[in-house]
Amino acid sequence: MKKKIVILGSTGSIGKSTIDIIKKDKSKFEIILLTTNKNIKELHKQAKIFNVKNLIISDLDKYYLYKKKNRNKKIRIFNNFQKLDQIIKKKVDYTMSSISGLDGLEPTLKLIKKTKTIAIANKESIICGWDLIQKKLKKHKTSFIPVDSEHFSIWSLIKKQNYSLIDKIYITASGGPFLKWPVKKIMSATPSKALKHPNWSMGKKISIDSATMMNKVFEVIETQKIFNLPKSKIKILIHDKSYIHAIVKFKNGIIKLLAHETNMKIPIFNSIYHNTNKSIKSKNLDIKKLNNLNLKNVDTKRFSLTKILKIIPNKNTLFETVIISANDELVNLFLKNKISYSELHKKLLSIINFKVFKAYKNKKPLNIGQISRLNNSVRLKIRELCI
What is each CA distance from 240 to 294, 331, 341, 345, 369, in whole angstroms? Predict the structure, then answer.
């Protein structure tokens, strides 16, 4: 019997990698649904390869354009997730949730009840809506696998062990393009320089987050939520080779670490085939990298945004949405050359300390509408201050 799957955000980097993996084993998969925001050309190609009958195109203009061009009347094309009950009658086996940004939260929540296993590659969904996600997972008895290389590594190292046995978790950071730059020079960096990640090929937004190390701030919050740990048990280590992805120290004295090459197909592949003996072609053990791990503590002068971790609550609150939204909007302005790299740092540290936003440290996210309204409010405030 074919494994039925759904890919949310199939035209993004994670989605395309997922497609590439299952394409090699095409006869064993049936894709029930693919989604995109605007990339209808890639979506059409994917749908043709797998004979997909259900497509969601979020952008209204692209939706109408594709409906006009599509000649295959057997394909059902939707503009949102409101008709999900019509699209998916029975639980599918696996869903990859890889829509970027907070736009991915609502589809993720809707798909949980429609799938046996959900793999989430969307930081924003976990950071802002973990309480909501966790309730849905429990209610619908859906298995969850994190796909970020760091969290997949932690999940793999821990498996079904009791989280109370964990003494410390270390997640690694490459240091991005500015690891060896003079600190004074970094603050005048241009978007083109900030986008040149030395190890990973990523989208623009995540590349900037890697340069500022906000991605690691987010990953600490994700680790805190997914594995129900206080921040004191989670630490970032600089590892410029990006070969070790996580280290877990247990209270019994055992230390486990997980290494793999800088290829997101490895955690994606293992999330799809995690209960099988299926193998993936990969490089041999890199002894040179293992012999020169060169792990270091984070220099907060070089990566000042990591100071944000000191003010993040240990409980789930709406303050995480403030941080996500503020950072997203400021990164967008930096990429458009509306603010400098230095201003990106200064404004983010300043804005999240506004009294009106700090109040959200004591407010728990109750529903997606609340998160969405706060996201819009924070973004509007930033545009008022910066433009």
Answer: 8, 23, 22, 22, 40
